[in-house]
Amino acid sequence: MTEQIIEKIEKIEKKHGKKETVRSSIVLKVYRANRRAGESVHYNSIEVPVQRWTTVLDALLYAKAYKDKSIAIRYSCRMASCGSCGMKINGIPRLACYTKVSELEGSTITVEPLANFPHIRDLVTDFSQFFSHHRDMRPYIQNDEADIKDRAKLSEFMQSPEDLDKFLQFSYCIKCGLCYSACPTVATDTKFPGPQALSQAYRYFIDNRDAAGKERENIVDDRHGIWRCHFAGSCSSVCPKGVDPALGIQLLRGHLLGFSKNEKKVADLRERPKRD
Amino acid sequence: MAMLRESQIMKIHYITGIAALFVVAVHILMRLIIPFSLSLEYENVIANYHNIPYVVLLESILVLIAIHGFNGLRVILLELRQSKAWEDGVTILTIVAMMAVIAYGTRTIIVANGSGF
Questions:
Q1: Contact at CB, A189 and B2, closer than 8 angstroms
Q2: Nearest to A267 by CA among A164, A150, A171
Q3: What is the value of pTM for the model shown?
Q4: Per the CB < 8 Å rule, is A256 touching B75?
Q5: A244 to each of A27, A168, A176, A197, A250, how far by Cα in Å?
Q6: DSSP state of A22
Q7: What is the largest distance, in Å, between two alpha-carbon atoms of chain A?
Q8: How far apart, in Å, do the first and last CA atoms of chain A sit?
Q9: pLDDT tens profile A205-235
C-alpha cells in the first residue's frame, strides 16, 4: 500500500508539474477582508518577482515583506508538514508552501481563504469547528488492556506489517483542512464531520491496537454522519499527502452495512521480559 | 426520535432501490408483451389488476419506490438545515407522506381489482 501511495503522489506531482512555466514575475491577486473591522471584500493585485522554485507562500511572504505588511497569512513549517498554509489558489484548495508558481497557468495567481471555514481575516480562517469534528472521533487508541498509568506495566502491541498497511495512509493526514474545504456536503451541512474526521474514524477503527470500534461506529452512524457523504471524491483529489479520505469513508460504510466484516482481532500485548 | 440507526435506514434505502429497479424492469417488460398502446387500453389495464401476481408486483413497486423516494427526500431535506426540530419534522413528514402515498396507491389497486370498497 505504501508503494501505491508513493506512486499516487508521484502521479499528482507529475500532473501538476507537466505545464511548468518559467516567469520572471507574477501578479498575486490577494483576497482581502476584515469583517470585524468593517472592511468589505476586495482583491489586491501585487506584482512579485519569482524564480522557478518560488512557491505561492514564498511569493506571499515577499509581498508581505516588501509590498503590504498588513496581509494576514497563517504558515509555519514551509515544507507541507504542518498544514497551516492551506488556501484556495486559483480556486483549488492547496498548500501554499507546496505549490510552485511555475506549476500554475497564467501570470496572475488568485489566492483566497479556504471555503467551508469561518473567515477571520484575509487568508486566515477559523479551524475550531474542523478540529472539534476531529476531536469528536476520539482520534487516539482506546484499549483497556494497555496500562498507560503504571509505567512498570508499559508494554508493546504485536502488530504485523499487514495490520499497519490497513491504516497507514490515513495516518499521513496533517489536518490541513483542504479536504474539508473541497467537500460539497460540508458546504451545506455544518454538522457533517467532513472527510478528514471520517477518515480518521476509519484509521482508528481499523487499527488493531484499538478496541473501541463499536463506540466509533456509534459516533459516525448519525443523521449527519458518514451517510451524508455524496462520494464526490474532491477530498481525495486535493489531499497534498496522498491520503484518500473518500476510500476511508467507503470502507467504513462497508463495515457499517455489514458488507465487510471487521475481522480485526485486537492486537495482543507483547510479553515483558522478566527482570531479576 | 431515532427508532432505527442511520445505517439500518440506509441499508433499507439501498435494498429498496435495487429491488425497485428489478420490479420496474419486470413491469416495463410486461408492457412489451402486446403492442404498447394496446396494453394501456381500459380492458387490458383492468385485466392486469385482476391478475393476482401482477397485483403483487404493482404493490411491491408502490411500496419500494415510496420507501426509497421518501427516504431520498428526507436525506436531501436534512442537509438544508441543522436543528433537532427540523430533523424530527422532516422525518415525521416524510414517513406520513410515504404512508399516505402507499395507502392511496393500495386503495387504487384494491378498487381496480374489484375486491373491495
A1: no
A2: A164
A3: 0.85
A4: no
A5: 33, 11, 14, 12, 10
A6: -
A7: 73
A8: 42
A9: 999 888 888 889 999 999 999 999 999 999 9
